[in-house]
């Protein structure tokens, strides 16, 4: 009885695309590093501009900063200054012109650390700016049949020149914004502007709102 010859196993050839490639760690790491470019580092000023634009998209650049400022309102009846409840970092900002106007704009923005209400002062609506002792005083143009409003900013002098630099920057920005004039378009559109942070719960206080709240706080509780 003859024995059957055992069959030889066939060699299965693997496709070339399934053969694992030999890796050179250093060259692979260099290739990955070359293909990935980290985002360029941003300065503190750029980060601050991005934060402010979430409240007021028209803000273009920051001209000066004070780490802490306290907002006061002036009561004509008692001829005294009252704290408004707004204090925080103050920014003097240049804004982009309105779409149909090339007039320069500027504002003072106080990012309130005590509540969601932030104060924005449109420098084109300020009729007078002066420095009296430690207060920077603004006279705000009134609407029809209203008196001028007066607010004061006390700027913490964390450095020797903080108050002086910010005061000078505000006065220069005010002169530029004031010389361009306030047209009806600017007055109407300025109050409608709101970035995503303001839409999500933050609030921009007008000077009228600021004085209305101050009057309510002075009313006696029955």
From TrEMBL:
Keywords: Cytoplasm, mRNA processing
Subcellular location: Cytoplasm
Pfam families hit by this protein: DCP1
InterPro entries assigned to the protein according to its UniProt record, in alphabetical order: Dcp1, PH-like_dom_sf
One GO cellular component term noted in the UniProt record for this chain: P-body
Source organism superkingdom: Eukaryota
Entry-linked SUPFAM superfamilies: PH domain-like
CDD domains for this protein: EVH1-like_Dcp1
BP GO annotations: deadenylation-dependent decapping of nuclear-transcribed mRNA; deadenylation-independent decapping of nuclear-transcribed mRNA; mRNA processing
GO terms, molecular function: enzyme activator activity; mRNA binding
Family membership noted in the UniProt record: Belongs to the DCP1 family.
Name of the protein described by the UniProt record: Dcp1-like decapping
Organism: Claviceps africana
């Amino acid at each position: 009885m003859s024995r059957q010859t055992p069959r030889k196993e066939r060699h299965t050839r693997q496709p070339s695309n399934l053969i694992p490639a030999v890796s050179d760690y250093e060259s692979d790491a260099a290739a990955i590093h070359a293909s990935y470019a980290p985002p360029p580092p941003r300065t503190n000023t750029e980060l601050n501009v991005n934060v402010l634009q979430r409240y007021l998209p028209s803000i273009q650049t920051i001209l000066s900063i004070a780490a802490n400022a306290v907002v006061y309102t002036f009561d004509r009846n008692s001829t005294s200054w009252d704290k408004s409840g707004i204090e925080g970092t103050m920014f003097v900002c240049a804004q982009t012109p309105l779409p149909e106007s090339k007039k320069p704009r500027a504002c003072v923005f106080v990012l309130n650390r005590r509540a969601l209400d932030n104060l924005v002062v449109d420098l084109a609506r300020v009729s007078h700016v002066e420095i009296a002792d430690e207060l920077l005083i603004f006279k705000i143009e009134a609407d029809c049949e209203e008196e001028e409003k007066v607010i004061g900013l006390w700027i913490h002098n964390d450095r020797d020149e903080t108050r002086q630099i910010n005061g000078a920057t505000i006065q220069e920005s005010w002169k530029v914004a004031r010389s361009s004039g306030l047209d009806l378009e600017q007055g109407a559109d300025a109050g409608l502007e709101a970035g995503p942070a303001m839409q999500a719960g933050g609030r921009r206080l007008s000077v009228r709102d600021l004085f209305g709240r101050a009057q309510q706080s002075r009313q006696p509780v029955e």
